[in-house]
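Blackboard transcription, Thursday session:
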Amino acid sequence: MLNQNPRQDLRVFVVWEPVISTDWGKPSPTLPGLVPDPRVRHYYDPDRKLSARFGGVARLPSLAAQSELAFKMKDVIWDAALLYPPAATLDAQATLLLAPVMKFQTRLADTLGANRRN
Amino acid sequence: MESSPGQGRSSVAASLASVLSLIAALSCCLSLGTLLMAAGAVSASVVSESLRPWLIGFSLTCLAFAFVQTYLRDRCEFRHRRLRTVLLWFSAAMITAMLAAPNQFASVIAGRLPSFTATGHLIPFDTASFERDFNAEAQQHRLIVLLSPT
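(Written on the board underneath:)
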């Protein structure tokens, strides 16, 4: 998806967090290679602090102006993408929230493409 | 004593099933997961989160069944059960690797050998630093993606 959107005014923050049973242990140092793009910065969040910072699953609907959620999260926000416009802070509402990411990757790519044209 | 063909087939099937079910359990990074997602019938997250413990349990059960079939119930000549034995130990090795180091195994299966140092590195998450990094790029569009490593 990032390959199809070479725009340079995009920064991606990938936050890896343990959620499912096979996520135990230290993450592989090759993990960033799963999303290899110079615009991406990779973080490892073992305590799932970002999800807590967002207010957890309970606040999910209010995190973005538009959201498409195709699965029910239990106690942590994960497999989700939030798109923020320029100048927005982390406390501001994102323009778009999509989860799970793979299911909505076309939608995300289209939105990024549309933003670029505007 | 010769084992029945059915018995041989069942241990081969059990070995294969154990590997396949564990691969399915780690399907986020595998083509199987992609296929499931492409099908759009179910959410991959739902599958991976709710079915994963069951798939792991199923794979271990199948592996145990295959060991019993091969070593306790089968006394045929080794050459007759060579394929099954090789498959069984291959399955056992795969499953052990997947369970012992799921993150590394997922990376390898996804085509990232440990010898490749990927572009970028993992930054330990700290809320304040993350917020600073996020705000420092305020002139750009920003995408935050929260993902599970496996």
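Lecturer's comment: Strands of chain A lie at 10-16, 40-44, 64-69, 80-84, 94-99.
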